[in-house]
Write a structure and sequence with these properties.
Helix content is 34%, strand content 29%. With 361 residues, the chain is α/β, with parallel strands linked by helices. Strands 5-6-7-9-8 form a five-stranded mixed beta barrel. Strands 1, 2, 3 and 4 form a four-stranded mixed sheet that branches. The chain is elongated. Pfam families: KH_NusA_1st, KH_NusA_2nd, NusA_N, S1. This is Transcription termination/antitermination protein NusA. Residues 135-193 form the S1 motif domain.
């Protein structure tokens, strides 16, 4: 029996990744519960595992005292020293009380408790494994979908992708392999719960890290991302290396790098713009492909607000379809942007005189 028990422990450790110590602890707790319930609930007992023989033993634990008040928990000094003359007051004596028929009763209780502990340990192992993937990209297989979620299998665990995390227009069929962004990992009572997304801006960032070595190693940095998933994304990039063009490096030769990301996002438009320390230059870049004549700030009223002046023929381009270009530029730069056509603006210099060549930066 002991060999069978040790073999079972080894199998659980190998197959489930659960250490023998965890299993032994669960077994000891189960046997202790069974003994107290069936043989002496009020006794002070403990269960120990003999690793050499592979057996569990039950012991009563009694404290050596001068005067015994409760025989269930105490033993007199004289009685203790009759067992071993070395005992002193305050010592604890373990006496084995394992019943002959204890194995059958204990096994029934132990099975349930052990399986519970095994499940808990397995859940913790899975949580520890997948929590490392938070804020990362992982590839999985679509299992099914219902009215609430798309369920994606990662092998040992199933992730869920809610409606807000699904790209509009994308369809997810069983057995489809897709890349998703792990937005949150929770360790719930029902096991690890993984939430993934296809709309999170982090997905775009991680995809560019995969496609652009210079972004992965930090030569080029993605400073900010503004995204309307499934339609259009703007990203701002910079490089501290004067010999590296951050936009050209990110786009890649003949646009190959950015196209790889576009393909993964099923045709989502991606604008790559250069981040500038000067807010007016950054805002002008963010409104690409529209031409910007000038950017004017109102530092006193709202330092994060500006008026952008564009040529009349570029007004609709600057605003974009349903205001998307201006909206994404504002999110990218963290400025409130008010776009006005050149014809609607009267340019003046510091003295209040009209000027023909405006420079309101």
């Amino acid at each position: 029996m002991s060999k069978e028990l040790m073999d079972a422990f080894s199998a659980l450790e190998k197959e489930k990744g659960i250490s023998k110590e965890v299993i032994v602890e669960a077994m000891e707790a189960a046997l202790l519960s069974a003994y107290k319930r069936n043989y002496g609930q009020s006794q002070n007992v403990e269960v120990n595992f003999d690793e050499q023989k592979g057996d569990f033993h039950v012991y009563t634990v009694k404290e050596v005292v001068a005067n015994v008040a409760d025989e269930r928990f105490e033993i007199s000094l004289d009685d203790a020293q009759s067992i071993n003359k070395g005992y002193e007051i305050g010592d604890h004596i373990n006496e084995e009380v394992t019943p002959s028929d204890f194995g059958r009763i204990a096994a029934q209780t132990a099975k349930q408790v052990v399986m519970q502990r095994v499940r808990e340990a397995e859940r913790n192992n899975i949580y520890a494994e997948y929590s490392q993937y938070q804020d990362e990209i992982i590839q999985g297989v679509v299992q099914r979908r219902d009215n609430r979620f798309v369920y994606i299998n990662f092998g040992r665990v199933e992730a869920v992708m809610g409606h807000n995390d699904q790209i509009p227009g994308e369809t997810y069929q069983p057995q489809d392999r897709i890349k998703v962004y792990v937005s949150k990992v929770e360790n719930t009572t029902k096991g690890p719960q993984i939430f993934v997304s296809r709309t999170n801006a982090g997905l775009v960032k991680r995809l560019f890290e995969q496609e652009v070595p210079e972004i992965y190693d930090g030569t080029v940095e993605i400073v900010s991302i503004a995204r309307e998933a499934g339609d259009r994304t703007k990203i701002a990039v910079k490089s501290d290396n004067p010999n590296v063009d951050p936009v050209g490096t990110t786009v890649g030769p003949r646009g190959q790098r950015v196209q790889a990301v576009v393909d993964e996002l099923h045709g989502e438009n991606i604008d790559v713009v250069k981040w500038e320390e000067d807010p007016s230059d950054f805002i002008a870049n963010a409104l690409n492909p529209a031409e910007v004549i000038a950017v004017q700030f109102d530092d006193e009223t709202n330092p994060k607000s500006c008026i952008v002046i564009v040529p009349d023929y570029h007004l609709s381009l600057a605003i974009g379809k349903r205001g998307q270009n201006a909206r994404l530029a504002a999110k990218l730069t963290n400025f409130k942007i008010d776009i006005k056509p050149e014809s609607a603006v009267e340019f003046v210099d510091e003295t209040g005189n009209e000027i023909d060549d405006p420079n309101l930066e």
